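User: Hi! I'm working on a homework problem where we have to compare a predicted structure to a textbook description. Could you give me the structure for the chain below?
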Amino acid sequence: MEVVQVKPRMIHARSLTMIPGIAKRDGPLLVFLGLITVSLAALPLLPPILQSQDYHQFADARVVLGVPNFWNVISNIPFVVIGAVGVAHYRDTAAIVFIFFGIFLTGFGSSYYHWSPNDDTLVWDRLPMALAFMAILANAVEERVNARAGAVLLWPLLAVGIFSLLLWRWSGDLRLYGWVQFFPCVALPLMFLLFAPKYTGTHYWIVATVVYALAKLFEYLDEQIYALGHVLSGHTLKHLVAAAACWAVLRYFETRQPVP
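Assistant: Happy to help. Predicted structure tokens:
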């Protein structure tokens, strides 16, 4: 029997020629996973974030038709409508389903919370948002970085979102939930800048990000805005403007086309 000998130098040379291709294919994904790992590892270095009970004191507490905090409750209807349209029409991937399912449930969860604001009801306001944020992040990875990895990452990201709320209720610490809400706001612009899109319509994501930032500003200026005539509060406007950001996301899926 003839024994075939493989020259080590040939194997080594071939391996070296494969490295650039591997780095080009998997490098962006490794960078993204490294960013997630480093940011999560940094959380214990931050001081605990506790839920201030002043958060539950909203400027507009008017009762209308027997509904307490009426405008903060009723202003969640757009979330339900936008989420329902998205769930009914866009089921390409699990991530897209969870984006719109999270938006849909946010309308109910936020209404429930504002009917009786306290820590126990706040969980049901934040949980659907956590699902939507994590699904948006997974969808961006799927479309921009690595399709297979985005599909796989969806499930651990959703688990982190759910666990962040459980951890808050067990320990009183909001650090992980803060990561769930704000890490996508950092990661998404980076992905939009560094990676080519799979579909047209990136401007809708940019609009959604800017409009959501405006919604957070309205939330912060709740009392000051309500003081300007006592018509609508900053928090009510926050709901409406955040719903406009969700509408921009819906428009993205309605209008996107594959990039050649």
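For your comparison, note the following. Residues 8-42 form the longest helix (35 residues). Residues 11 and 160 are 42 Å apart (CA to CA). Good luck with the assignment!
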